[in-house]
Amino acid sequence: MASTPGGFLTDVDTLLDLPGLQQVKQLRRTDKAVTIAGRWRGQDVVAKQLTSSERHWVKRFAHEVSVYRAFATTPPPWRVPRLHHAGRRLLIIDGLPGASPHTDRYPPRLPEPVVAGMIDALVAFAEWQPPPGLLSTLTTNWPARIRRYAAAGNLPGDVQQPLLDAVADAPLVFGHGDPLASNALADPGQPLVFIDFEFAGMYPRGADLALLGLWLGRHDPGAERRCAQIAEDGGSLHTYQAMRVLWLAREQRLYKSLFDVVEDREHRQWLDDQTADAVTGLRRAVGRG
């Protein structure tokens, strides 16, 4: 079986083909990937196998592998798992201590240490200056996304330009890009750790906090207010407000197809109300409301 000088197996791309994997326990299965924990080469590891063939997820998976490799070259000042193996559809990283606080996109109210840990981790990301290269690359063409959302009717026409201005004027910082509770590891007495860096890169300052505040705020409005306050203290409240509008527009798009299958009127109404409030807040911020 072929391997690289660093020990990576060059012809292994599925869990079934991975030699010596022991004590396997499935951690998570989604429509795009399966993640397991186990022992491999005498170490605790986590392996993720991409199961989707969609171009978007293939691209995101390759990006995550590249991010872990970049972290190995230039370690950030927070803990990240070491990459042990990477193929086109399989990656293996250190199994770090701790467990995900919750698997729901909009989790119930989380313990205070977990909320504080998630916020602290995102603040630390934004304070880090990554080296030139992949980690300092803008993750999204935000003007193109704004125009696409506006054209599709997901954004009111009068906020398109304020959003474009807010994104264009915002300083860029390193961000996780997907700070779900399921992408975090909480271990009592230790700093919370984020994993799953599929969307990591440069974002407008406040973007990570706005997304975390949106997800946590569904059942813990105080957490959203804390995120907004930190953005305000850091001089990025306007960008935070703009990114909240954009994240809500994305959530509306993501959930639109689900509403046709799963009846969740309460959540749908909450999203509608949050969107209306966010748009009103943005209009006021630019003197249009």
UniProtKB/TrEMBL annotation:
UniProt cross-references to Pfam families, sorted A to Z = APH (PF01636)
The residue stretches assigned to a coiled coil in this entry are: none
* InterPro entries reported in the protein's UniProt record: Aminoglycoside_PTrfase, Kinase-like_dom_sf
UniProt superkingdom:
Bacteria
Residue span(s) of domain Aminoglycoside phosphotransferase: 44-244
Xref: SUPFAM superfamilies = Protein kinase-like (PK-like)
Please report the name of this protein according to its UniProt entry: Aminoglycoside phosphotransferase family protein
| Species this protein is from | Paractinoplanes hotanensis
